[in-house]
């Protein structure tokens, strides 16, 4: 539905389709972020169009999420899976498709919020021919990713250049944690405007509910100690560290331990290789009987998994933010996570979870053990974790901050580039 009274804005999310199923190789936090931000912005009074690349011929070209929020799938390359590392060559077609959509619909977006470096390139191309204002969120940074990769993809130099240009040229870059802001300043550029606005979670869906009920629904034994992983299969997610920590705990003759690994695509996607690797390790360590690969689980059922768990483990080598941490804590599950990036921002050590050295198997095993066997402390943490997420990370609170930022950027463009004097509203509302 189009409305004359609403300000139309566009979100661009090249590979991460906001209307797609989440949890497989290419679908993760960015899809969730764009979808929730879009839907919540529409609820706040904007008209929101979210643009992504059309991946399957059978997918609808337009998905209406709510009266003023839709996903628009644009033609850019073959209607088939193309890995992110090979998408850049198709971005000129993406820009053309965007422009022809704008023309045929008579739309004119004064502000575009781009997500990921490929979209940043598209946004900067669009800016060359129109007076649009640009806001950007990185989601992942080449400068960090390439530090840990044995093989650097061909597109690396282009990505690093675009990531610097968008920081220096966008009206504002949104860092999702103070840690990401620091990384941008130290690894990308000292120039450009950054505001810290975190990611959020749906606190009406991820919330405190009965563990007994969740265990019964998932047919889990009430006596078992359940350790949970939720996320994509990607080596940098550190699932191997968790599996080895689990083996270490079991070697100490601890009974009734179960590891549940949630995520991964069901069809032949590139994340299958990492899943096979992890399954092999599980087999070799003799953990098959106590490990469950649950596959991809939607956000409708996921709260049951968090609620049923005793601890949620996030062993990532790096996370700019890490949505899983706030989802788990919102459901009252303490987390044991790597002491990196946004996880240092969202988790309060000893109060809502524990932060340990990444890749350190023993440290993870110790952290998990502490949480599994200190019932009184965990009972306290459960309430603290949930209250903390409600206060700091509801989508409504977070999107109000984005909405205020857009208004400021648009007002400033009308008032001809006054000096940046934005003051972030201190909103900590729950949804
Ligand atoms: N996710 C999901 N189902 C799954 C696995 C993951 O819905 O089977 C979601 C998870 O709930 C979270 C997102 O995928 O919302 C992962 O976001 P995060 O920021 O933790 O990691 P990213 O994928 O961005 O690296």
Average pLDDT confidence is: 92
Strand content: 15-25%
Count of the domains: 2
> Would you list the SSEs in sequence order as H and E?
EHEEEHEHEHHEHEHEHEHEHEHEHEHHH
> Helix fraction?
40-55%
Summarize the main sheet: 8 strands, mixed
Layout of helices and strands:
Blueprint: E1 8-12, H1 29-43, E2 47-53, E3 62-66, E4 69-74, H2 91-105, E5 111-115, H3 117-129, E6 133-137, H4 142-145, H5 156-169, E7 172-175, H6 178-188, E8 194-196, H7 211-217, E9 225-230, H8 239-251, E10 257-262, H9 271-284, E11 291-295, H10 302-308, E12 311-314, H11 323-330, E13 335-338, H12 343-346, E14 353-356, H13 361-372, H14 375-392, H15 395-414
Parallel strand pairs: 1-2, 1-5, 2-4, 5-6, 6-7, 7-8, 9-10, 9-12, 10-11, 12-13, 13-14
Antiparallel strand pairs: 3-4
Helix pairs in contact: 1-15, 2-3, 3-5, 7-10, 8-13, 11-14
The structure holds uridine-5'-diphosphate.
Uridine-5'-diphosphate (UDP) binds at residues 22-23, 28-30, 32, 230-232, 262-263, 296-297, 299, 302, 321-324, 327.
Question: How would you explain this protein's 3D organization?
Answer:
- There is one protein chain.
- The chain has 431 residues and is an alpha/beta fold.
- It folds into 2 domains: 8-200 and 395-415, 3-Layer(aba) Sandwich (Rossmann fold); 211-392, Rossmann fold (3-Layer(aba) Sandwich), CATH 3.40.50.
- The chain is 41% helix and 16% strand.
- The chain has helices at 29-43, 91-105, 117-129, 142-145, 156-169, 178-188, 211-217, 239-251, 271-284, 302-308, 323-330, 343-346, 361-372, 375-392, 395-414; strands at 8-12, 47-53, 62-66, 69-74, 111-115, 133-137, 172-175, 194-196, 225-230, 257-262, 291-295, 311-314, 335-338, 353-356.
- The protein has an 8-stranded mixed sheet, with helices on both faces. Strands 11-10-9-12-13-14 form a 6-stranded parallel sheet, with helices on both faces.
- Helix 7 (211-217) crosses helix 10 and helix 11 (323-330) packs across helix 14 (375-392).
- 48% of the residues are buried.
- Bound molecules: uridine-5'-diphosphate.
- Residues 22-23, 28-30, 32, 230-232, 262-263, 296-297, 299, 302, 321-324, 327 line the site of uridine-5'-diphosphate.
- Uridine-5'-diphosphate binds next to helix 1 and helix 11.
